Amino acid sequence: MLILISDAFDESLPNVLSKYGEVTDDKGRLNEAEIVLVRSKTKCTKEYIDGAPKLKMIIRGGVGLDNVDQEYAAQKGIIVRNTADASTTAVAEHAFALMITLPNHITRSDQSMRQGQWLKKELKRTELNGKTLGILGLGRIGLALAVRARGFQMRVLGWHPDVNFTDFAEIRSSMDEVLAESDYISLHMPLLESTKGIINKETLSKCKDGAFIINTARGKLVVEEAMVEALRSGKIGGYATDVYYSDPPGQTPLFNAPNTVFTPHIGASTKENMLRIGVVIDRLIGAYVERNK
Ligand code: NAD
User: Fold this and answer.
1) Measured between alpha carbons, how far is 23 from 274 in angstroms, rounded to an integer?
2) H or E segment and range at residue 89
3) What DSSP state is assigned to residue 44?
4) Phi, psi dihedrals of residue 262, rounded to the nearest 5°
5) Which neighbouring-strand residues pair with 212?
6) Whose CA is nearest to atom 28 of ligand 1?
7) Nearest to 291 by CA among 72, 5, 79
């Protein structure tokens, strides 16, 4: 059996998986691979899958499966799995880091100090304590962020199509209600046809004036031009994002908008998470080998 490691995983993984067969990172051997391991970089499109006639299983190290054509894989009898639980802590901590960076002007302070400026009077901070955080997408990561925000004495609101109660957030009956009440809004829903562009000119106009938005979910949840306009007008006080229309984003108009913070899609990239992902992959491949004995 050939296992193709197509994206970046912990360096220990090839050794861990070698008990199941040959492990390679040579993408030119896709046509021989029985199992392919991807993160978000490799796009498992119809064409990609057609180039892998021996493929039986795709494992996405991480959560979002929007880079895998799941319908076509199912037609071809290819099993698709992710390592959904592993990344929760890493992404929740990153969302929190972005949230606390915005009102404390951490990046602007750092840049201005290096340029010899002393903006002690200009950089007025605000506290998270007592502010309202609205979470859109109360799943694993959204709830983990809620727990952390409660530790900072924030009031936490959420909206979810199916959830009516959680111990960690007050549930509102619509997204609009969450937008209207929140000082901070953090996105944690998957990218689906129904969620693409969900943060747009209309929904931004429903936010509290000066609200901060944090995106560690997917870039395409947000209409970039609308966000740029809202940042320029001051309607939105700041936007911190880990995710873009494409990785890397090229020349996004967001780079020229005020009060923005960017990270290069590193929400899941902690050492600890990479090790957890490896443990889950080992289990998934072990179970696959057992079933096919
Ligand atoms: P999850 O499935 O546990 O949670 C997502 C929640 O969003 C679910 O409860 C779902 O029902 C809800 N939801 C779906 N449509 C909605 C809508 N229209 N409005 C409100 N809620 C809606 O997933 P998770 O593990 O919490 O991950 C969430 C997302 O985070 C992933 O889909 C992925 O895109 C992103 N992610 C990013 C990184 C990163 O590196 N930045 C890493 C992991 C995951």
Assistant:
1) 17
2) helix 88-101
3) B
4) -125, 140
5) 184, 238
6) 188
7) 79
What are 30-79's pLDDT values in tens digits? 999 999 999 999 999 999 999 999 999 999 999 989 999 999 999 999 99
Report whether residue 195 contacts ligand 1, using a CB cutoff of 6 Å. yes
219 CB less than 6 Å from ligand 1? Answer: no
Pocket flag, ligand 1, residue 86 (CB < 6 Å): no
CB of 64 within 6 A of ligand 1: the answer is yes
Domain with CATH 3.40.50.720 in the chain: 2-82+271-291, 87-262
CB 280 within 8 A of CB 81: no
Q: Please give the CATH architecture assigned to the domain spanning 2-82+271-291.
A: 3-Layer(aba) Sandwich (3.40)
Q: Quote the DSSP letter at residue 199.
A: B
Q: Which of 41, 60, 63 to mutate to test the pocket of ligand 1 (most atoms within 8 A of CB)?
A: 63
188 CA from centroid of ligand 1 (Å): 4
What pLDDT, in 10s, does the model give residues 210-259?
A: 999 999 999 999 999 999 999 999 999 999 999 999 999 999 999 999 99
pTM comes to 0.94
- The atom number, within ligand 1, closest to the CA of 90 reads 42
What is the distance in A from the centroid of ligand 1 to the CA of 216? 9
Which residues are registered as beta bridge partners of 184?
133, 212
Domain 87-262 has CATH 3.40.50.720: yes
Place of tokens 């395409």: 220
